[in-house]
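Just curious: can you write whichever protein you like plus the matching structure tokens?

***
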Amino acid sequence: MSETLLKLKNIKKAYGSGESKVEVLHGIDLTINKGELVAIIGPSGSGKSTLMNIIGCLDTPTEGSYLVDGHDTFNMLPDELASLRRDFFGFIFQRYHLLGHLDAKENVQVPAIYAGTSQEIREKRSVELLEKLGLGQKTLNKPSQLSGGQQQRVSIARALMNGGQIILADEPTGALDTKSGTEVMKILTDLNTQGHTVILVTHDPKIAAHAHRVITIQDGAIVSDTVNPEILDHQKEAENTEKVHFSRRIVNSFRAYVDRFKEAYTMAIRAMISNRMRTLLTMLGIIIGIMSVVCVVALARGASEDIISNISSMGTNTITIMPGERMGDMRSGRVRTLSVKDMKALRGQPFVDSASPTVQSSVMAQRLDQEATATVMGVSGDYFRVYGMQIEKGRKFNEDEAELSPQFGVIDYNVKNTFFKNEDPIGKRLFVGGQPITIIGLLVDKEVAFRPHDALYVYVPYTTMMNRIVKQNFISSIIVRTADGFSTAVAEASITSLLKSRHGRKDFFMMSSDTIMKSINQATGTFTMLISAIAVISLLVGGIGVMNIMLVSVTERTREIGIRMAVGARQSDIMTQFLIESITVCIIGGLLGVVLSGVLGYVLSIFVPTIHLSFSVASVVVAVLTSSLIGVLFGYMPARSAARLNPIDALARE
């Protein structure tokens, strides 16, 4: 007694709703046994293709019950239906539905990839199937290199890849010539003889004549179900097929996932390569966005490093004591309590390495017929130690000399280039503020932090400055260099205590290099965050571009999605494929953006050396991770849209 394999009871299928509702199947009752060769015949529009789609779980009925091997499919989830299509059914389509970018062997292997079959096994089986079907020499040919009959044979091999317990053939000879059609029908009858259940859909009585059982459908209802007496009953219990099917279900899930991921990744790369211009334009938005973010961060980082370097050149442990309550105090000019005695008192403290008073003024410098405005600094010999200034020629004055109001001084390179361009300045005389100053030392040519690069500076003893040039008995500020092992905070607290006791009140404020660096770091950090936020907008625009292109890609590849679903791809397989493509585009765009940022930094360092871009590994990693995240976020909607397509609608799309 034959065993029931498929059972349809009161199957109805309707499209639309309300007044526009159209019912194409009207209560179909049908039973198909294992090993049968059944032909469903009827004119165009009779509902036979819709019935075939429901039998193959490509479509679901509006009402009724459909059992596959005893399992009701009505309330099955999409992935459960995909499992049935993958493990029970093998589809042979009129239009072949082969994937054009894959060769014959790869097309045959697609169902096995989604079934989790190892690469070695599916490679071997695909070649064996193609050889049995007379395509042993065509395994590496693309569909465009095969005739119609050969393509249909590849389609048959694909249907048998996972065992093909039930083979569904929709007008399998409709697009073939007579000879090729005859060959295909012989293959199908041979498969039935071997134990496969074969269901044909056709409108041609000659094709139906090959079947043992002919079911005629008209206007959505079965009008006859007859047995062809001229065809011998070749039904068999397909035990071997079932065993293969059962063992195929028990697969290594990790291996299956890896294989499916590799296939999805390969598909993504091939899709990108086949649409190079579109891929490049998609990447362009990401490239520009990543370049903007990386370059902005590098620019801010470079500026911060330059400033910190300049501050460090002043000495990272210096404290400047100035009159007044704070920077910008309008009354500070009237506070004249800082004195040389304060400086000497500070020198005796254990936390002080060295200290120098400063008296500063802008005066006219003259030599022969040349004159220029110069800044004169009245300092002690310790001033050069505090700021780490080095002498290139001559010498600097010492502490004893500084207290005697000598008329000599030290100049920087800008003064030398202005007044002593082609001669040695040592021993020469320069009039500063009307006072003759003999040059005893020339500083090393080095930029000093927070000073214009073209400014002229002359350093004279503070007594000379106070007694001969500006004629005042108070000093402008005191510069202190803290001793090693003492923190700036401790030094500032001690200075405050000492000077308050000397002055009777706090009429001064302090600025340290640490304070300046903290302020600068905070300012540059805020600035970087602000500009980066603006730059991120370009990344968002690039992400929207990725989403739009991916939506277009889904539309263009709808038929491919349908083919993959028909041979057993899960929703997660389809979603993974499109997500991988989106993420890959974004990652490659991100990496190109990083590389181009580096190229831009190199070019700027050559042609615009004043602009310093400092790239960090952290910013590069964040940029690449950001581009990946954009790929996930903006690729999710198109991927989800692709995964939710109805297999029948997708297959029908050209």
The longest strand covers residues 352-367.
